[in-house]
Protein backbone atom coordinates (compact mmCIF):
# COMPACT_ATOMS: atom_id res chain seq x y z
CA UNK A 1 0.00 0.00 0.00
CA UNK A 2 1.34 3.44 -0.88
CA UNK A 3 0.25 6.36 1.23
CA UNK A 4 -0.10 9.83 -0.20
CA UNK A 5 1.31 12.98 1.31
CA UNK A 6 -2.14 14.25 2.19
CA UNK A 7 -2.48 11.71 5.00
CA UNK A 8 -2.34 12.75 8.63
CA UNK A 9 1.16 11.48 9.25
CA UNK A 10 2.32 14.78 10.76
CA UNK A 11 0.53 13.53 13.88
CA UNK A 12 2.45 10.23 13.89
CA UNK A 13 5.73 9.73 15.74
CA UNK A 14 8.37 9.99 12.96
CA UNK A 15 9.33 6.32 13.23
CA UNK A 16 5.78 5.28 12.27
CA UNK A 17 5.53 7.50 9.19
CA UNK A 18 5.70 5.63 5.91
CA UNK A 19 8.14 6.95 3.34
CA UNK A 20 6.13 8.51 0.48
CA UNK A 21 6.24 6.47 -2.69
CA UNK A 22 7.56 3.34 -0.98
CA UNK A 23 5.32 0.32 -0.83
CA UNK A 24 6.04 -0.86 2.70
CA UNK A 25 3.66 -3.76 2.57
CA UNK A 26 4.98 -5.57 -0.45
CA UNK A 27 8.34 -6.64 0.82
CA UNK A 28 6.78 -8.56 3.68
CA UNK A 29 4.75 -11.69 3.38
CA UNK A 30 2.30 -12.03 6.24
CA UNK A 31 3.37 -14.09 9.21
CA UNK A 32 0.84 -16.90 9.85
CA UNK A 33 1.33 -16.44 13.59
CA UNK A 34 -0.68 -13.26 13.27
CA UNK A 35 -3.84 -15.09 12.29
CA UNK A 36 -6.63 -15.52 14.75
CA UNK A 37 -8.41 -18.84 14.89
CA UNK A 38 -11.96 -17.66 15.04
CA UNK A 39 -14.46 -15.24 16.36
CA UNK A 40 -16.03 -16.49 19.47
CA UNK A 41 -18.55 -15.51 22.03
CA UNK A 42 -16.74 -13.99 24.94
CA UNK A 43 -18.56 -14.70 28.24
CA UNK A 44 -20.82 -11.94 29.46
CA UNK A 45 -21.24 -10.61 32.99
CA UNK A 46 -24.34 -8.50 33.53
CA UNK A 47 -23.90 -5.97 36.31
CA UNK A 48 -27.49 -4.83 36.01
CA UNK A 49 -29.08 -8.22 36.45
CA UNK A 50 -30.88 -9.03 39.64
CA UNK A 51 -28.66 -12.08 40.12
CA UNK A 52 -25.45 -11.37 41.92
CA UNK A 53 -22.60 -11.21 39.38
CA UNK A 54 -20.80 -13.83 41.49
CA UNK A 55 -23.06 -16.51 40.03
CA UNK A 56 -21.43 -16.82 36.65
CA UNK A 57 -18.33 -14.81 37.54
CA UNK A 58 -16.63 -17.64 39.41
CA UNK A 59 -16.55 -20.03 36.48
CA UNK A 60 -15.63 -17.34 33.97
CA UNK A 61 -12.66 -16.15 36.06
CA UNK A 62 -11.40 -19.72 36.36
CA UNK A 63 -11.84 -20.66 32.71
CA UNK A 64 -11.34 -17.45 30.80
CA UNK A 65 -9.78 -14.79 33.01
CA UNK A 66 -11.73 -12.21 31.04
CA UNK A 67 -15.30 -11.23 30.20
CA UNK A 68 -17.51 -8.71 28.52
CA UNK A 69 -19.32 -6.42 30.95
CA UNK A 70 -22.84 -5.26 30.08
CA UNK A 71 -25.16 -2.90 31.94
CA UNK A 72 -22.10 -1.25 33.46
CA UNK A 73 -23.73 2.13 33.98
CA UNK A 74 -21.09 4.20 32.12
CA UNK A 75 -23.13 6.67 30.01
CA UNK A 76 -22.76 6.24 26.24
CA UNK A 77 -22.49 10.01 25.89
CA UNK A 78 -19.38 9.98 28.13
CA UNK A 79 -17.76 7.22 26.05
CA UNK A 80 -18.51 9.06 22.81
CA UNK A 81 -17.13 12.33 24.12
CA UNK A 82 -13.98 10.62 25.40
CA UNK A 83 -13.35 9.02 22.01
CA UNK A 84 -13.99 12.32 20.19
CA UNK A 85 -11.58 14.18 22.45
CA UNK A 86 -8.97 11.44 22.14
CA UNK A 87 -9.29 11.60 18.38
CA UNK A 88 -8.77 15.36 18.34
CA UNK A 89 -5.79 15.21 20.67
CA UNK A 90 -4.06 12.40 18.82
CA UNK A 91 -4.58 14.29 15.53
CA UNK A 92 -2.40 17.16 16.77
CA UNK A 93 1.14 17.45 15.46
CA UNK A 94 3.54 14.99 17.03
CA UNK A 95 5.58 17.90 18.42
CA UNK A 96 2.59 19.36 20.32
CA UNK A 97 1.80 15.98 21.82
CA UNK A 98 5.39 15.56 22.90
CA UNK A 99 5.01 18.66 25.02
CA UNK A 100 2.55 16.67 27.16
CA UNK A 101 5.17 15.09 29.38
CA UNK A 102 5.07 17.27 32.45
CA UNK A 103 1.38 17.17 33.18
CA UNK A 104 -1.01 14.45 34.47
CA UNK A 105 -1.77 13.60 30.85
CA UNK A 106 1.54 12.12 29.78
CA UNK A 107 2.19 11.36 26.11
CA UNK A 108 4.21 8.30 25.07
CA UNK A 109 4.66 6.17 21.98
CA UNK A 110 6.13 2.84 20.97
CA UNK A 111 6.02 1.24 24.37
CA UNK A 112 3.52 1.20 27.20
CA UNK A 113 6.28 0.21 29.70
CA UNK A 114 5.72 1.58 33.15
CA UNK A 115 7.84 2.72 36.00
CA UNK A 116 6.95 1.82 39.59
CA UNK A 117 4.90 4.94 40.10
CA UNK A 118 2.62 4.18 37.19
CA UNK A 119 4.27 6.84 35.10
CA UNK A 120 5.36 5.89 31.66
CA UNK A 121 8.98 5.50 30.91
CA UNK A 122 9.87 6.60 27.41
CA UNK A 123 12.43 3.97 26.55
CA UNK A 124 12.92 4.99 22.95
CA UNK A 125 12.65 2.82 19.89
CA UNK A 126 13.86 -0.74 19.74
CA UNK A 127 12.56 -2.55 16.67
CA UNK A 128 11.99 -5.87 18.43
CA UNK A 129 9.49 -4.72 20.99
CA UNK A 130 8.16 -1.60 19.35
CA UNK A 131 4.40 -1.39 19.78
CA UNK A 132 2.63 0.35 16.91
CA UNK A 133 0.86 2.79 19.17
CA UNK A 134 0.92 6.08 20.97
CA UNK A 135 -0.87 6.85 24.18
CA UNK A 136 -1.75 9.13 27.02
CA UNK A 137 -1.13 7.92 30.54
CA UNK A 138 -3.29 9.43 33.27
CA UNK A 139 -2.80 8.47 36.93
CA UNK A 140 -6.16 9.15 38.55
CA UNK A 141 -4.73 10.18 41.92
CA UNK A 142 -3.37 13.52 40.69
CA UNK A 143 -5.70 14.20 37.78
CA UNK A 144 -8.35 16.07 39.76
CA UNK A 145 -6.18 18.82 41.29
CA UNK A 146 -4.85 20.02 37.96
CA UNK A 147 -6.31 22.56 35.59
CA UNK A 148 -5.24 23.09 32.00
CA UNK A 149 -5.30 26.48 30.27
CA UNK A 150 -6.02 24.77 26.98
CA UNK A 151 -9.82 24.16 26.72
CA UNK A 152 -9.49 20.86 24.79
CA UNK A 153 -7.09 19.43 27.36
CA UNK A 154 -9.14 20.73 30.26
CA UNK A 155 -12.37 19.17 29.02
CA UNK A 156 -10.52 15.92 28.25
CA UNK A 157 -9.06 15.93 31.78
CA UNK A 158 -12.48 16.45 33.29
CA UNK A 159 -14.07 13.69 31.15
CA UNK A 160 -11.25 11.35 32.22
CA UNK A 161 -11.92 12.20 35.83
CA UNK A 162 -15.59 11.32 35.40
CA UNK A 163 -14.72 8.13 33.52
CA UNK A 164 -12.15 7.25 36.22
CA UNK A 165 -14.86 7.50 38.88
CA UNK A 166 -17.00 5.03 36.95
CA UNK A 167 -14.04 2.67 36.59
CA UNK A 168 -13.38 2.80 40.33
CA UNK A 169 -17.01 1.95 41.00
CA UNK A 170 -16.87 -0.99 38.59
CA UNK A 171 -13.54 -2.30 39.90
CA UNK A 172 -14.91 -2.18 43.43
CA UNK A 173 -18.08 -4.11 42.53
CA UNK A 174 -16.25 -6.73 40.44
CA UNK A 175 -13.50 -7.21 43.03
CA UNK A 176 -16.05 -7.55 45.81
CA UNK A 177 -17.76 -10.39 43.95
CA UNK A 178 -14.39 -12.08 43.32
CA UNK A 179 -13.31 -11.69 46.96
CA UNK A 180 -16.57 -13.31 48.01
CA UNK A 181 -16.08 -16.19 45.59
CA UNK A 182 -12.51 -16.71 46.83
CA UNK A 183 -13.47 -16.36 50.51
CA UNK A 184 -10.98 -13.58 51.17
CA UNK A 185 -10.94 -12.42 54.80
CA UNK A 186 -11.76 -8.68 55.16
CA UNK A 187 -8.07 -7.76 55.63
CA UNK A 188 -7.18 -9.19 52.22
CA UNK A 189 -10.18 -7.63 50.51
CA UNK A 190 -9.04 -4.27 51.81
CA UNK A 191 -5.35 -4.35 50.89
CA UNK A 192 -5.57 -6.32 47.66
CA UNK A 193 -7.33 -3.55 45.76
CA UNK A 194 -6.21 0.06 46.00
CA UNK A 195 -8.60 2.26 44.09
CA UNK A 196 -6.21 5.21 44.44
CA UNK A 197 -3.54 3.25 42.50
CA UNK A 198 -5.61 3.19 39.33
CA UNK A 199 -4.63 4.87 36.11
CA UNK A 200 -6.09 5.29 32.65
CA UNK A 201 -4.31 4.78 29.37
CA UNK A 202 -5.80 6.12 26.20
CA UNK A 203 -4.22 4.49 23.15
CA UNK A 204 -4.20 5.24 19.47
CA UNK A 205 -2.97 2.28 17.43
CA UNK A 206 -1.46 3.67 14.26
CA UNK A 207 -2.06 2.51 10.75
CA UNK A 208 0.68 0.12 9.82
CA UNK A 209 1.54 -0.97 6.29
CA UNK A 210 3.28 -4.07 7.64
CA UNK A 211 0.17 -5.16 9.50
CA UNK A 212 1.03 -8.82 9.02
CA UNK A 213 4.38 -8.32 10.74
CA UNK A 214 3.89 -5.89 13.58
CA UNK A 215 1.83 -5.77 16.73
CA UNK A 216 -0.17 -3.01 18.31
CA UNK A 217 0.69 -4.77 21.54
CA UNK A 218 2.30 -8.20 21.46
CA UNK A 219 1.02 -11.12 23.53
CA UNK A 220 1.13 -10.36 27.26
CA UNK A 221 -0.70 -10.62 30.54
CA UNK A 222 -1.50 -7.47 32.53
CA UNK A 223 0.33 -7.01 35.84
CA UNK A 224 -2.75 -5.46 37.44
CA UNK A 225 -5.43 -6.90 39.69
CA UNK A 226 -8.04 -5.97 37.08
CA UNK A 227 -8.01 -4.09 33.79
CA UNK A 228 -11.12 -2.65 32.16
CA UNK A 229 -11.05 -1.75 28.46
CA UNK A 230 -13.26 0.16 26.10
CA UNK A 231 -12.50 -0.17 22.40
CA UNK A 232 -13.87 1.65 19.37
CA UNK A 233 -15.38 -0.21 16.40
CA UNK A 234 -12.13 -1.01 14.56
CA UNK A 235 -11.26 -4.27 16.35
CA UNK A 236 -7.90 -5.97 16.79
CA UNK A 237 -8.01 -7.19 20.39
CA UNK A 238 -7.51 -10.94 20.73
CA UNK A 239 -7.49 -13.29 23.72
CA UNK A 240 -5.83 -16.68 24.12
CA UNK A 241 -8.13 -19.51 25.13
CA UNK A 242 -7.61 -23.28 24.79
CA UNK A 243 -4.48 -22.77 22.68
CA UNK A 244 -6.32 -20.51 20.27
CA UNK A 245 -6.36 -16.79 19.60
CA UNK A 246 -9.89 -15.44 19.53
CA UNK A 247 -11.02 -12.05 18.25
CA UNK A 248 -12.76 -9.89 20.82
CA UNK A 249 -15.42 -8.29 18.64
CA UNK A 250 -15.95 -4.59 19.32
CA UNK A 251 -19.41 -3.96 20.79
CA UNK A 252 -19.58 -0.27 21.58
CA UNK A 253 -21.80 -0.32 24.65
CA UNK A 254 -19.81 -3.04 26.43
CA UNK A 255 -16.55 -3.06 28.38
CA UNK A 256 -13.94 -5.82 28.46
CA UNK A 257 -12.56 -6.89 31.84
CA UNK A 258 -9.22 -8.71 32.01
CA UNK A 259 -7.87 -10.32 35.17
CA UNK A 260 -4.22 -9.51 35.77
CA UNK A 261 -1.23 -11.28 37.33
CA UNK A 262 -1.99 -9.94 40.81
CA UNK A 263 -5.46 -11.49 40.71
CA UNK A 264 -4.06 -14.84 39.58
CA UNK A 265 -1.55 -14.90 42.46
CA UNK A 266 -4.13 -13.76 45.03
CA UNK A 267 -6.42 -16.59 43.95
CA UNK A 268 -3.69 -19.29 44.23
CA UNK A 269 -3.86 -19.72 40.45
CA UNK A 270 -7.60 -20.50 40.57
CA UNK A 271 -8.25 -17.49 38.39
CA UNK A 272 -6.37 -16.88 35.14
CA UNK A 273 -4.42 -13.81 34.16
CA UNK A 274 -5.51 -13.83 30.54
CA UNK A 275 -3.02 -13.65 27.66
CA UNK A 276 -4.06 -11.08 25.07
CA UNK A 277 -2.67 -8.97 22.22
CA UNK A 278 -3.71 -6.27 19.77
CA UNK A 279 -3.33 -6.45 16.00
CA UNK A 280 -2.61 -3.38 13.93
CA UNK A 281 -4.64 -2.33 10.95
CA UNK A 282 -3.50 -1.09 7.52
CA UNK A 283 -6.35 1.30 6.90
CA UNK A 284 -7.65 2.48 10.22
CA UNK A 285 -6.38 3.84 13.46
CA UNK A 286 -7.87 2.29 16.59
CA UNK A 287 -8.61 4.01 19.87
CA UNK A 288 -9.01 2.17 23.16
CA UNK A 289 -9.16 3.29 26.76
CA UNK A 290 -7.82 1.08 29.52
CA UNK A 291 -8.15 1.31 33.28
CA UNK A 292 -5.64 -0.60 35.40
CA UNK A 293 -5.85 -1.08 39.15
CA UNK A 294 -3.34 -2.55 41.61
CA UNK A 295 -2.99 -3.70 45.24
CA UNK A 296 -2.07 -1.33 48.08
CA UNK A 297 1.66 -0.63 47.68
CA UNK A 298 2.87 -2.45 50.80
CA UNK A 299 0.29 -5.26 50.72
CA UNK A 300 2.05 -8.62 50.82
CA UNK A 301 0.40 -11.08 48.45
CA UNK A 302 0.38 -14.43 50.19
CA UNK A 303 -0.60 -17.67 48.51
CA UNK A 304 0.37 -21.30 48.51
CA UNK A 305 1.83 -21.11 45.00
CA UNK A 306 4.08 -18.07 45.27
CA UNK A 307 6.68 -16.64 47.59
CA UNK A 308 5.11 -13.68 49.43
CA UNK A 309 5.65 -10.50 47.40
CA UNK A 310 4.41 -6.95 47.09
CA UNK A 311 3.35 -5.34 43.84
CA UNK A 312 6.42 -3.03 43.77
CA UNK A 313 8.66 -6.13 44.10
CA UNK A 314 6.82 -7.76 41.20
CA UNK A 315 7.15 -4.62 39.13
CA UNK A 316 10.89 -4.29 39.90
CA UNK A 317 11.51 -7.90 38.80
CA UNK A 318 9.48 -7.32 35.65
CA UNK A 319 11.41 -4.17 34.76
CA UNK A 320 14.75 -5.91 35.30
CA UNK A 321 13.71 -8.81 33.06
CA UNK A 322 12.52 -6.39 30.40
CA UNK A 323 15.83 -4.57 30.54
CA UNK A 324 18.11 -7.59 30.59
CA UNK A 325 16.14 -10.12 28.54
CA UNK A 326 13.70 -7.95 26.64
CA UNK A 327 10.70 -9.97 27.87
CA UNK A 328 8.38 -9.96 30.85
CA UNK A 329 8.69 -13.12 32.95
CA UNK A 330 6.13 -12.04 35.56
CA UNK A 331 4.57 -14.57 37.91
CA UNK A 332 6.96 -17.51 37.27
CA UNK A 333 9.67 -15.42 38.95
CA UNK A 334 7.80 -15.81 42.25
CA UNK A 335 6.35 -19.31 41.88
CA UNK A 336 7.39 -21.80 44.58
CA UNK A 337 9.41 -24.62 43.05
CA UNK A 338 10.52 -27.94 44.50
CA UNK A 339 13.91 -26.41 45.34
CA UNK A 340 12.34 -23.78 47.62
O1 LIG B 1 -6.04 -1.70 23.51
C1 LIG B 1 -6.48 -2.75 23.97
O2 LIG B 1 -7.56 -3.21 23.64
C2 LIG B 1 -5.65 -3.56 24.96
C3 LIG B 1 -4.58 -2.80 25.68
C4 LIG B 1 -3.79 -3.68 26.58
O3 LIG B 1 -3.82 -4.89 26.48
C5 LIG B 1 -2.93 -3.12 27.64
O4 LIG B 1 -2.76 -1.91 27.70
O5 LIG B 1 -2.40 -3.88 28.46
FE1 LIG C 1 -3.10 -5.74 28.30
TrEMBL record:
Translocase found in the keyword field: no
Entry annotated with the keyword Cell membrane: no
Keywords: Iron, Metal-binding, Oxidoreductase
Fe2OG dioxygenase domain residues: 191-295
Listed GO MF terms: 2-oxoglutarate-dependent dioxygenase activity; metal ion binding
Biological process terms in GO annotation: coumarin biosynthetic process; response to molecule of fungal origin
Span list, region Disordered: 21-40
Pfam families: 2OG-FeII_Oxy, DIOX_N
Family the entry assigns: Belongs to the iron/ascorbate-dependent oxidoreductase family.
Record-given protein name: Gibberellin 2-beta-dioxygenase 8
